[in-house]
């Protein structure tokens, strides 16, 4: 029992460590023809997440919310090589010492290109990236000419107050992990499988221990029943 309670308090810590997580859950759209959009997608120079590279560690510029940018700064990513109709989640994880509010949204390629505010935001972000990185990302994408893909928009606003005016005018970049996680059987995120297995084992263990205790301490009482 002592061991069990130690194990249980450890799970509490594990949840606390992941507390700063924001996510979006979506089903992958049907595949579209890439020859139409392929060259355009490569020139955008976005960071891509796919089954092969499902995790990116990034240093993200943030702003405090303002009139023009109520949700801080926007950044754009590509989710590539998805399996149509498969359910996924994208998670952003960050440290508690960098208080930030995040909003995640996924959009199909058509939706972005048909919505002027979205395409403007994407273009502005892409241009900024191209100016900052002189060396171009080489498109590592080689696949069939059909692909299921989505745009991911991340909005990040600093969420703290400091008496230090330097910090308030120019909040420091936030270190984030961005993760693409497919669901197993469309209901359970694959990367959480070890944690899930652990919790299930813990539950079975607890059930077994309670059975033993029940037998040892309570069954004789039952004999008194008349
Ligand atoms: C304000 O924060 C900046 C950045 O962390 C730091 O360099 C500076 O020393 C701070 N100023 C004061 C008055 O604490």
From TrEMBL:
Molecular function terms from GO: mannosyltransferase activity
Name of the protein this chain belongs to: Uncharacterized protein
Record-level GO BP terms: GPI anchor biosynthetic process
PANTHER family xref list: GPI MANNOSYLTRANSFERASE 2 SUBUNIT PGA1 (PTHR28022)
InterPro entries (alphabetical): GPI_ManTrfase_II_coact_Pga1
Keywords linked to the UniProt accession: Membrane, Signal, Transmembrane, Transmembrane helix
Transmembrane stretches, start-end: 196-214
